[in-house]
Specification:
- There is one protein chain.
- The protein is an alpha+beta fold and 150 residues long.
- The chain has 4 helices and 6 strands.
């Protein structure tokens, strides 16, 4: 009888542990899916079309953009960055290749980092996008970029 009771307790605890792991794994996957959607539906689409109304939906309003382009330092507020996107020819209208690729997404609780590669104009950009879940919505809070040789 003691053995049967002990086995039942162990099985119940094991199921509870497995359920907690599954829930955490499902949450992580749901977060990655949500982040992927932001990148593909707003970030890449806004960049490609040069549509700042779409693009800014991926950003927190206080986002800063840092990095280097052609080896020169690059630092902009979100408004400066969006103004540059608004006032240039869009990759769509340029006729040059455009490709956005998600390399990886790593998230922990309410923060995440996405590594993306963007081919546009004559550049291949490598971006590190820092995300934060704010009001249950994933937003880019920092963008770091560099151009790399194709």
């Amino acid at each position: 009888m003691k053995m049967l009771l002990l086995t039942a307790i162990i099985l119940c605890n094991l199921q509870s542990i497995m359920a907690q792991k599954l829930t955490k794994m499902e949450t992580i996957q749901n977060d990655k899916t949500a982040i992927t959607k932001v990148i593909e539906d707003f970030y890449f689409k806004g960049l490609y079309n040069g549509n700042v109304d779409i693009l800014k939906q991926s950003f927190n309003h206080e986002t800063l953009v840092y990095g280097d382009v052609k080896g020169k330092p690059y630092a902009k507020t979100l408004e400066q960055y969006l103004d540059g996107v608004k006032n240039r020819q869009s990759p769509k209208d340029s006729g040059k290749p455009f490709k956005g690729e998600i390399i990886s997404i790593k998230n922990v609780n309410s923060i995440a980092i996405a590594e993306v590669k963007v081919v546009m104009y004559d550049f291949v950009y490598y971006d590190l996008l820092s995300f934060h879940r704010i009001d249950n919505k994933w937003l880019i809070v920092n963008k770091m970029l560099t151009d790399i040789n194709p």
